[in-house]
Design goal:
The chain is of the alpha/beta class. Helices cover about 45% and strands about 15% of the residues. Bound molecules: uracil (URA). Keywords: 4Fe-4S, DNA damage, DNA repair, Hydrolase, Iron, Iron-sulfur, Metal-binding.
Length: about 475
């Protein structure tokens, strides 16, 4: 009877097709081992077109599972659709099944989602556009990229927001996507050989890149370690990193500026200005900020007053990440303005870090609390809520690309590093991040607030200030 439940999906990343079929099959009581999932791409064979009458009752599916499924579907693992259905099947009888961390299925699905997220992150960080003059005289920015998973559609929104005013194409072996300033369209995949990349474009791009090179934004050690070699070929700057770092930046820029002017690269430089702070970056951030205000990715929005988004300069070299807004932040709509914020501000001041120069945000953007009488008592966000909110912090990080990120406490560390860490084990040394930045983990300011003994409190506050000083020095070192 297996053939009776053969599901053929339209594409490798066909989340909607999987969801519709899975919902009908689960409601009809079809067990996981009675279904064969395949991807065909030929529209005629789609399961969705077969007449199916779900016979059972519908059941609620938790939002974190939907978010997880959207990522997992993009993985190349051929079993992904079946694994997701097996999880959905469990959720049918136990809506908390996802919370069972000891369940190997939960673990496997989370690992698949994590690999997809890493791939998306790499695409955001490592796509490099080349400027191409089109026959109609218009400029188009073209990039070639080879993702590990089926993430191109999933990652496209980021590029639309980031480069709204440009006409661009991202070519990949599986498909190409094109933005004309208003509409996103798709085309067939491309091989590296067909993609623009060689001279003379390459030479022009290389000079162009050199003109915008900012060593503060590029951590070579981490970059070489984190960036898989296969991306290097698509990134002109890898051939420039050593010479540029070796020379004094100002002299270099002066020289390159002259070369750029001589070679007629003004247009490229202007395009970059549109992308940089004050231009598209600010607009992208504002769009993100607005979108976040309507966030319903988990249930926390239902009881909180508002989304508390990050704030600070978009070219900040340090990003601080807290856990979630507290009672006062929820009212004010700004991060770290309550009691923990006071401890944080005081420590920043003692460490010589002006708050106005750093970007401050939280891993979770809505206040979670228990009502006790008139008081709203902070309660810790769970794994699903951290996961649901990771989308926002990933977007903030992709836009700002801070060379140094400081995770304040375990929740922030979990969100940034995508794994559970013990603060005492990782405190004090940098952890390389896939985007070339580094993460420093320290305690949360509210931990300092809760210490009852005055001596220990003083000691721990001093240690916290020392951590901040180290981070300050590191950010300065990376910028020098
Ligand atoms: N605690 C946090 O983690 N963030 C805030 O914004 C306030 C308190």
């Amino acid at each position: 009877m297996i053939d009776a439940h053969r599901v053929t999906l339209a594409s490798e990343d066909d989340f909607d097709g999987w969801r519709d079929a899975a919902r009908d099959l689960a409601e009809a009581g079809v067990p996981p081992d009675a279904i064969v999932w395949r991807v065909d791409g030929s529209e005629d064979d789609l399961f969705a077109k077969e007449a199916r009458q779900p016979t059972g009752a519908s059941f609620p599916v938790p939002r974190p599972f939907i978010d997880l499924a959207k990522s997992v579907v993009c993985h190349t693992d051929p079993e992904r659709f079946a694994l997701l259905y097996a999880m959905l099947w469990k959720l049918r009888s136990n809506r908390h099944a996802m919370e069972d961390r000891a369940d190997p299925l939960v673990d496997r699905l989370e690992n698949l989602a994590k690999e997809v997220r890493r791939d998306v992150h790499k695409m955001h960080a490592f796509v490099r556009f080349r400027v191409v003059e089109q026959p109609d005289g218009m400029t188009r920015f073209i990039a070639f990229f080879e993702p590990d998973h089926h993430i191109v559609r999933h990652a496209a929104g980021f590029f639309v927001r980031r480069f709204t005013n440009m006409r661009w194409s991202i070519l990949t072996p599986e498909l190409s996507i094109h933005w004309d300033g208003e509409t996103l369209s798709e085309g067939p995949g491309t091989t590296r050989a067909e993609a623009p990349g060689g001279d003379p474009l390459e030479a022009m791009w290389t000079t162009y890149y050199a003109s915008i090179f900012n060593p503060a934004r590029l951590k070579v050690g981490a970059m070489l370690k984190e960036m898989p070699k296969k991306y290097w070929r698509n990134m002109p700057e890898t051939s420039l990193v050593q010479p540029l770092i070796a020379s004094a930046r100002n002299r270099e820029l002066e020289m390159i500026d002259r070369a750029a002017a001589k070679e007629g690269l003004r247009e490229a430089l202007e395009a970059e200005r549109r992308i940089e702070p004050g231009g598209n970056l600010r607009k992208s951030w504002e769009a993100l900020f607005k979108e976040a205000r309507g966030c319903t990715r988990c249930d926390l929005y239902k009881r909180a007053n508002q989304t508390v988004f990050g704030e600070g300069p978009l070219d900040a070299s340090i990003m601080f990440v807290g856990e979630q807004p507290g009672d006062q932040e929820d009212v004010a709509g700004r991060p770290f303005v309550g009691p923990a914020g006071q401890v944080f501000d005081e420590a920043l001041e003692r460490a010589g870090i002006p708050r106005s120069e750093v970007y401050v945000t939280n891993a979770v953007k809505h206040f979670k609390f228990e009502q006790r009488g008139k008081k709203r008592i902070h309660s810790k966000p769970n794994a699903g809520e951290i996961e649901a909110c990771r989308w926002w912090i990933d977007q903030e990080r992709s836009l700002i690309r801070p060379p140094v990120t400081v995770a304040l406490g375990a929740t922030a560390a979990r969100s940034i590093l995508d794994k559970v860490v013990t603060i005492s084990r990782v405190r004090g040394s940098p952890i390389a991040l896939p985007d070339g930045g580094e993460c420093w983990v320290t305690v949360h300011p509210s931990f300092l607030l809760r210490i009852p003994e005055p001596d220990r409190k003083r000691e721990e506050r001093a240690k916290f200030v020392d951590d901040l000083k180290r981070v300050r020095d590191r950010a300065a070192e990376l910028a020098s």
